[in-house]
Structures are given as structure tokens and as C-alpha cells.
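Risk register update: the risk of archive-format incompatibility is retired. Evidence:
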Amino acid sequence: MGQPAHVTVRHILIVEDDPDVRGAVAAILEAAGYHVLEAEHGREALHHLRAGAADVCLILLDLFMPEMNGWAFRDEQLRDPQLAQIPVLVLSADPHAAKRAVSPGVVGTMTKPIEFDRLLQVIAQHC
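Archived output:
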């Protein structure tokens, strides 16, 4: 029957170049009842956000990606007042890079492999 008209569906945007990681995270979040958008790199993520930023409650952001990496994405996100308010959780295999990525709007960092119980706790705080 679908969602009542007054309920806004909120999405989590996964920005990750590895299709296996992106797919696994998406599957777990969808199984937990979340709606998921996926992007392979920062430029694709910006496209998704500019098409419907109000519907995104959290961005899960990898740092090392082709075409537009996580740092360049964050620079663009913070320059756009419509997007700057969306919280970001940084996901990286490199714990030092994850720590360097902390900036306004970054609600936390998590190293890969991802601890899904912890990830779901962080998401529940924002979505």
C-alpha cells in the first residue's frame, strides 16, 4: 500500500567505489529498513544530493575513490548551503586518513572492515 502521504522517506547515501563493499552495506541497511542511494564516487554523490538533498539523512563516505575522492566531495558539499547540513560518517580502510577527514558535519569515522552493529547505532542517531 506504500507510505502515507505525510511521511517523508529519508535516505542514506553510500559513496563508495568498491561495488562489493557498497553492495554489502546497502544490503544490510535495506534489511534494517533503511532506504539507500548509492554512488561510485563524489561527483555521482553530488548529482544524487542535488536531485533530492532534503531526503538524505546521512552520507556514508569513502575517502579514496576515482574521479572525485572524499576530500574533494566534502569541499563541494560544504560550499553548497543545501548540502552542507547533511551529516557525514567517514568510512576508510586507512585509520589515519579517516582521522584527518574530521571536519564540520563529520559525525564520526569508521575503519574498514565495517562493524555493522556500530554502523547501525550511528545511523539510528541521525536517521
